[in-house]
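Lab notebook, bench 4. Still working through the backlog of constructs that have no structural model yet. Next entry is a single chain of 180 residues. Request: give me the structure tokens for it.
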Amino acid sequence: MSQTAPPLNCLPTFGDEDAVHVVIETPKGSSNKYAYDEAFGAFRFKMVLPEGTSFPYDFGMIPSTKGADGDPLDILVVMDAPVFPGCVLEAHLLGVIEAEQREPDGTWERNDRLIGVAAKARTHAHVHALSDLRPGMLDEVEAFFGHYNQLAGKDFKVLRRGDAQAALALVRQGARSHVR
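Model written out:
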């Protein structure tokens, strides 16, 4: 008897040891934004970024979590080379960019961006904390999200940066908030 696999957004949150599972939605270097659509059980094309703009790192979700915006928690994954939409990998949390975004209707909502490193990374194997990233990288990532949201008619405001423990607390809260 065969079993049906769970939807990607309902996979286990945690992997081995201190790693989280990540479902990549948009690969590094992509000018197209994709997002997993549970109703379709597939990735949907969301938009094209402006000419010359692309995702700086692989972007995805942590399954079986729910953030303040009602969606699975977002995560940017630093790794050696981009992977494809739908690829499931394990990542170690480095920290979080705690942020709010103003929607087109004028309301503000939290929309944090977790930062992780692929568990099987080679060139980033030395990265264990946000402070291990190259100087200026987080400034560039924050600027990317600010520009990306601006083009979607939203404002993006960074509140603060948090360490791996703050990121893990958000993931645990997101896992508790997820409706099973």
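Notes after review: The chain has two helices and nine strands. The first strand starts at residue 19 and ends at 26. Flag for follow-up if needed.
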